[in-house]
Design brief:
Elements lengths: L5 H21 L3 H25 L5 H21 L5 H25 L9 H32 L13 H26 L4 H19 L7 H23 L2 H24 L4 H10 L19 H9 L3 E6 L1 H6 L2 H13 L3 E6 L9 H8 L7 E3 H4 L8 E5 L8 H4 L18 E6 L19 E5 L2 H13 L2
Parallel strand pairs: 1-2, 1-4, 2-3, 4-5, 5-6
Helix pairs in contact: 1-2, 1-9, 4-5, 4-7, 4-8, 5-6, 5-7, 5-8, 6-7, 8-9, 11-17, 13-17
């Protein structure tokens, strides 16, 4: 028996929805992101409590058991995941959300809910919303699993294409839409929907999700994660309509809208349209080196050489990348920056919008080391600074500083705005090896006479550089 009257339930949902909106606002800036995340979590807890107290829930034991199992899996995963694996975790959580929405909609449509709907018109709308949820939720689930595999390097990170791929994807998508229409027709003719039709719809959608992500590779994978997150939000909103739950409708719409905006911003940061990001591999022609290529001489140095370059500079710009996160060297680079600033050297951090494996990856990483927000400069603000910098110190970044994005048509990153590291007087690269970046493109800047390479683990290398600066 429900313990809360309807007006109290709606008020609780309204407060939770406001929490979600405030959380999104807080997440838009590094300084307020932590508070925004806590507010969003509080809204989620409130929503669950209100739901438990407002409805006469059946199978309460199964529900609580599922929550315990979910918490037992989710809490350790979230606490133990490394910063370098955060995008993979986001992809998995997003996929699980899409799958959950699709399963709920499928169970609702295959049950007796539609036959009890007040009007046939409402039943058809509910059937359409449920079919949409199954179609999009299953696409989001399989696509998210594939992006996880690419990011975790369980499969090829490069685009996977085959002859006729776009046509196979188009036929699969049309088949999914046709099956969704059949679900509505079935509801119109009989008020009940055959479970087999829903299963076939889900299987086709799963295949479409795989075909959707396969041709995406390299640095474009985070954009697809954001798009799939928007898909999950939309199908959650549709499932809210099927279940008659206002908060699901609001929360799903917020996720769908914010995910769509983020996807557009990331695509713009990559300097290409969304269609080129998703399907450009089918049209791409070979152009420029896409691997280690022939061996050419490079200028390598020692930690002491790098320490001398930095210690006697007037202005240094740090360029963090995925390698910094892998080495967990954020605290060491902060120590180095503090030493340089103590010597009167101006130090800035250049943050590319898609550095790392997800938006804000470098911001979050450096925030762990308490790097002041004011010295974190976004790409447009910091690019004019490189021409006046004595040294650009690149730690684990590659694609976001690769001049091929400006000079080599046909490569996957061509047209992507990059950090103008090549404008600095001296460039120092901290790298483990000459292996190309995530996009698989060789970086000609590594062979520039003004570039010095310091090979090794970023944390160990930076530690030695710190010792060298202290000894000056």
């Amino acid at each position: 028996m429900a313990l809360l009257p309807l007006n109290v339930t709606l008020l609780g949902y309204l407060i939770a929805a406001v929490c979600f909106i405030i959380a999104l606002k807080g997440l838009s800036a590094p300084g307020t992101a932590r508070r925004g995340n806590l507010i969003g979590a509080a809204g989620g807890v409130l929503a669950v409590l209100v739901t438990f107290l407002s409805y006469d829930l059946h199978h309460l034991g199964w529900i609580l058991g599922a929550m315990v199992v979910g918490a037992a899996l989710g809490v350790p995963a979230a606490r133990r995941v490394a910063m370098t694996q955060m995008p993979q975790l986001v992809a998995l959580f997003n996929g699980v959300g899409g799958a959950a929405a699709a399963l709920v909609a499928g169970l609702e449509l295959s049950g007796t809910g539609l036959s009890n709907t007040a009007s046939s018109g409402a039943a058809l709308v509910a059937a359409g919303a449920g079919a949409f949820t199954i179609l999009v939720g299953a696409i989001s689930f399989s696509g998210s699993c594939l992006t996880f595999g690419k990011l975790q390097e369980l499969m090829a990170t490069r685009p996977v294409t085959f002859p006729g791929g776009p046509y196979v994807f188009g036929v699969g998508l049309l088949a999914g839409v046709a099956l969704a229409v059949l679900v509505v027709v079935d509801a119109w003719s009989d008020s009940s929907i055959h479970p087999l039709l829903l299963i076939v719809l889900a299987l086709v959608a799963l295949a479409v999700g795989v075909l959707f992500v396969l041709p995406v590779g390299g640095a474009d994978v985070p954009i697809v994660i954001s798009l799939l997150n928007a898909f999950t939000g939309l199908c959650v909103a549709a499932s809210g309509y099927v279940l008659g739950n206002v908060l699901l409708l609001i929360g799903g719409t917020l996720v769908g809208a914010s995910g769509t905006i983020l996807t557009r911003l990331m695509a713009a940061a990559m300097g290409r349209s969304l269609s080129a990001t998703l399907f450009g591999a089918f049209r791409q022609k070979a152009g420029g080196p896409t691997g280690p290529g022939e061996e050419r001489p490079v200028r390598s140095g020692s930690p002491e050489d790098v320490a001398i370059l930095l210690g006697y500079a007037r202005k240094v710009i740090m360029v963090p990348g995925y390698g910094l996160a892998v080495a967990q060297a954020q605290h060491t680079i902060r120590e180095l920056a503090d030493l340089l600033e103590a010597r009167g050297i101006e130090v800035l951090y250049a943050i590319h919008p898609v550095a790392g494996r997800m938006p804000g990856h470098m911001n979050v990483l450096l925030a762990e080391a308490n790097v002041p927000y004011e010295v974190l400069k976004e790409m447009d603000a910091v690019n004019p600074e490189f021409s006046t910098a004595d040294v650009a110190l690149v730690v684990g970044a590659n694609d976001v500083v690769n001049p091929a994005a400006k000079t080599t048509p046909g490569v996957p990153i061509y047209g992507m705005p990059i950090l103008h590291v090549d404008a600095a007087q001296q460039v120092v690269f901290l790298k483990r090896s000459m292996r190309p970046g995530f996009a698989g493109i060789e970086n000609e800047l590594l062979y520039d006479p003004k570039t010095m390479l310091l090979f090794g683990d970023a944390k160990e290398s930076l530690t030695k550089v710190v010792a060298g600066v202290k000894g000056l």
